[in-house]
Design goal:
The chain has 221 residues and is mostly helical. It has one domain. Helices cover 76% and strands 0% of the residues. The protein is built from ten helices and no strands. Keywords: Membrane, Transmembrane, Transmembrane helix. This is Single-pass membrane protein with coiled-coil domains 3. Pfam families: DUF4533. InterPro entries: DUF4533 (IPR027895), SMCO3 (IPR040004). The chain crosses the membrane at residues 119-137, 157-183.
């Protein structure tokens, strides 16, 4: 047994905790890639978009992968905002307001969208209209996309984001290799606290993002 482990018996447990939290973070990021690709495929299929799918770089850092996701989510938000801007310019104010009224039934919104389907690209059919209503005019989806982007930016800007590789062990080795004994104890605890905060915020956000998008895409033919 290492003298360091004898003198600081809690360090091995702390190392294991860092490894577990690091893997949880990676799992959440991987879930976000899958969810984003599901959304991109649906937009390309039903709203005539030409978005490119995203791929996780297992040799990159957490920060680099967060930036890939952020770019993809920003592209999705830009498309939704552009279509929404066309709707605003082609609809009477009262009709446009109804589209964003969460209490208005989807059937009413479908009728409104049919009025402008010829001047707004992406509405080739009923499925596209229904998909856009669920996606763009959903309070939940709008909040989830913004929340996911916000947490991804926070992770990318963190020390963990800059240091940790995506492959399990790569980033952890970077964290553990330079710290020993009492210094290791303090730094491990700091990493545990940082990772715990990030995972605690990112895990529920990732699940909500996945749930919101899956709920919509599962309704598509």
């Amino acid at each position: 047994m290492s003298w360091i482990n004898i003198l600081y018996p809690d360090n091995p447990a702390r190392r294991e905790r860092v490894v577990r939290l690091h893997q949880e973070l990676i799992n959440c990021i991987e879930l976000n890639f899958d969810t984003t690709n599901e959304l991109i495929e649906a937009l390309n299929t039903h709203c005539q978009c030409k978005l490119h799918s995203v791929k996780m770089n297992m040799n990159g850092t957490v920060q680099e992968n967060c930036e890939i996701l952020l770019t993809a989510i920003k592209s999705i938000q830009d498309i939704l905002q552009a279509i929404d801007a066309k709707l605003k310019s082609n609809l009477e104010p009262d009709l446009y307001r109804k589209l964003h009224d969460f209490q208005e039934p989807d059937a009413t919104k479908m009728l409104i969208l049919r009025k402008v389907s010829t001047v707004v690209s992406g509405f080739a059919g009923i499925v596209a209209m229904g998909f856009f209503i669920k996606l763009a005019f959903s309070q939940v989806v709008g909040r989830v996309l913004s929340q996911t982007a916000m947490v991804l930016a926070k992770i990318g800007a963190s020390v963990i984001g800059a240091m940790a590789g995506m492959l399990l062990g790569v980033g952890v080795d970077l964290i553990l290799s330079a710290i020993l004994g009492a210094i290791e104890r303090d730094q491990l605890q700091a990493k545990i606290e940082e990772l715990s905060d990030l995972v605690g915020e990112f895990k529920p956000a990732s699940k909500e993002y996945n749930k919101a998008i899956m709920k919509i895409t599962c309704q598509l033919p």
